[in-house]
Amino acid sequence: MLDRMPQTLEAMGAVPEEGLRQVCTWIENTIDFPASLTGNSTRPRIRDGLSEDLDELRRCFDSLDDFLSDIGVQEMNALTSRGLQLDRLHIIFLPRVGYLLVLSHATAIDAAQQVVDGAGEDDVNSRLSASSRASTVSEQSALAEVGLEFVFTTDEHVYFKNERCHELDNELGDISSAIGTSIFLLSSFNVLPVLWTCRRGVGCFPIELYALVVSVFSFLWAS
Predict the structure, then answer these.
(1) How confident is the model at residue 16 (pLDDT cuts 50, 70, 90)?
(2) How confident is the model at residue 132 (pLDDT cuts 50, 70, 90)?
(3) I need a labelling partner for 168 at 20 to 30 A (CA). Which of 59, 68, 148, 154 fits?
């Protein structure tokens, strides 16, 4: 967007003052600036009541951490009912990956060993090394027996998907991206009538100004 700034500023200079004033008023009426400056978020806060869909998505997003904590407790209980004793697990969301069940390496190794022990495999060769990371084929295979599909591992944690994670992927999806899309559409369709009135003053649609407004909203939400 920066490489097009000179053309954008030139286009804005050709727009009647009244048109620019309307655009600024629309932005002021759309963004809740006091709320945007509070908390840790760097994203603009769109005023409540402008879009029912956006308001509902935002309510879901704001309560997502508590919701996933509850899901984590439910999944812990579900695994406990299958004979696994886990000290902790988390359910998280990662963009482009979806919802994941997270265990520490130590917890994953212990869980895999419990599956092996529960299957009656007492041979010493079936014992899983407590010093290894929970990313070996044997560990992944053992945890797959209780519905945990290995996705990837980091230095501290192992990430899985199970049936509940797939359900969340299908039912909730990426709420953050949905909010971004809703804001993009809100900024696009609501600013169009304002900019269209500017057309009478310059003889053509001020596409550069339109692109600037939409780009600013998209950039702020993604930042």
Answers:
(1) low
(2) very low
(3) 154
Name residues whose C-beta falls within 8 Å of residue 2's C-beta, 6 or more positions apart in sequence: none
Token output for 92? 């998280």
Sheet with 157-161, strands from edge to edge, namely 90-94, 98-104, 157-161, 149-153
Work out the pLDDT band at 206, boundaries 50, 70, 90. low
8 Å CB contact between 12 and 21: no
First vs last C-alpha separation in the chain: 15
Q: Which long-range contacts (CB under 8 A, 24 or more apart) does 56-62 make?
A: 57/175, 57/178, 57/179, 57/182, 58/179, 60/172, 60/175, 61/175, 61/176, 61/179
Residue 191 tokens read as 């600013």
- Arithmetic mean of pLDDT over the chain: 75
CB within 8 A of 220, min separation 6: which ones? Answer: 42, 43, 44
Which amino acid type is present at position 213? V
Instruction: Report in angstroms the alpha-carbon separations of 141 from 102, 161, 162, 221.
Output: 17, 14, 14, 41
The residue to which tokens 């003052």 are assigned: 17
Largest CA distance in the chain: 85
